[in-house]
Amino acid sequence: MDYIRQGILNPIRTTTVHGPFKNLFRAEEVHELEKKLKLPPGLSLHKAALYLGISDSTLRELVIREKIPCEYSKYNKQYKYSFQIEDLDMYDLERKGITPDIINTIPLYDNHQRIFNWIQLVAYRGRIIHTRPLVIQLDNGELHTIKKQELRFDTPWPERSSLSEKAIKMTIPVPDDVEDDMYSRMQRLIEGVGGNNVRIIISGNVYRLKIKYCKYHATKNDYDQLKFYCGDNDIMYRNDEIWIGNF
Fold first, then answer.
1. Which of 19, 111, 192, 207 is disulfide-compatible with 46, CB 3.0–4.6 A?
2. Is the pTM of this model over 0.90?
3. Would you write out the chain's pLDDT as a tens digit for each of its 247 residues?
């Protein structure tokens, strides 16, 4: 990975802490956190937080709570509640039309309080992925929450993109009335199927992924890939809709 070419080389000196971290840590503490995150040479903790679309304090909290790093699952090939910063491939994300600005539009608030326990960072196919929090803010400033039984994603994608090419994998937190074991399978769902307008409807223990962007319908290939994450008994394919739940 050529970090210099990507313009994200920002070493922190041994005696000075730059950026927002200067009021949170001593220089030695920053270096200890960077060691724990296994950052490649020259990539600072602040840059890691910036390109992941989260605040420095949130990243710090994740480290303190020992959410980073964590176990790697060979079954679903992802890192849960962790990330490997060396997998950060912003060039690949930007090539697919996903810029840091898009990632940074996601707030991490619930009732104006930060919710660290809902944050999940997932590495998928060698890329850093940011997941959706409990409450999201739309472009018009409206706060939208999963408790309203509907969550819309309006992330723009290049028209040529397909499920296999998409670099973002999103998860949503567990609502109060949903069993954890069922939702743990839902967390493996790849969102963004069908283009740039996807809606999830929660009804009991059934999660409906409705593809609203008519140019991209769910294909058998989409279904096969989702089945890999959700299991044979938890997913059903009907025309242009994919249903996930206990059937």
1. 19
2. no
3. 233 233 332 333 223 334 443 444 455 555 665 565 555 444 555 655 654 455 566 555 555 444 343 334 444 443 333 333 323 333 444 444 433 333 322 233 322 222 222 222 222 222 233 333 333 333 344 444 433 222 223 333 223 233 222 222 333 333 444 444 433 433 333 333 332 333 333 333 344 433 332 223 345 555 555 555 444 444 455 544 455 443 3
**Hey, which bits of 116-240 come out as E strands?**
121-124, 127-130, 135-137, 143-145, 150-153, 198-203, 206-211, 235-238
Chain-centre distance for alpha carbon 168: 7
Q: Which residue has the tokens 């949903």?
A: 178
> Which DSSP symbol is given to 66?
T
**Nearest Cα to 145, choosing from 119, 121, 173?**
173
Grouping H, G, I as helix, E, B as strand and the rest as coil, residue 36 is helix
The answer to whether 225 and 163 have CB atoms below 8 angstroms apart is: yes
Q: Can you give the residue ranges of every domain in the chain? A: 1-131, 132-247
How far apart (Å, rounded) are the C-alpha atoms in residues 100 and 88?
12
Closest CA to 121 of 65, 44, 42: 65
As given in the structure block, the two tokens for residue 185 are 């399978």
DSSP letters, 87-123, are G--HHHHHHTT--HHHHTT---EETTEE-GGG--EEE
SS3 for 78? strand
Burial class (CB in 10 A: 0-12, 13-18, 19+), 183: middle
